[in-house]
Amino acid sequence: MRLVVDLNKCQGYAQCAFLAPDVFAMHGEESLVYDPQPDPEQRERLARAVAACPVQAITADGVAGASRSADDGR
Q1: What is the C-alpha separation between 13 and 61, in angstroms, rounded?
Q2: Which residue has the higher pLDDT, 2 or 30?
């Protein structure tokens, strides 16, 4: 499983950090930090975080239910 966040798109809404706190965290008010290779047991939370991103900045490879994947060209 691979996770990528386009930090140029990310606006710091922190929906991902709320839905998958073991993977995403806010550093300060606007800077996101994340684990690019999260544990497989985070799969469901990651799918929710990808879907909840208001600016579609998160892509996930190997996450069932994720609306965008890292290799689909978005």
Answers
A1: 22
A2: 2
How many helices (H) does the chain have, and how many strands (E)? Answer: 2, 4
Scan for tokens 């995403």, then name that residue. Answer: 24
How many other CB atoms are there within 10 angstroms of residue 58's CB atom? 29
**pLDDT tens digit string along 32-52?**
999 999 999 999 999 999 999
E strands in the chain: 2-5, 24-27, 31-34, 58-61
- 25 CB burial (10 A radius; 0-12, 13-18, 19+): middle
Burial (Cβ within 10 Å: 0-12, 13-18, ≥19) of residue 70: middle
DSSP category for residue 6:
-
C-alpha dihedral sign at 21, 1, 34, 13? negative
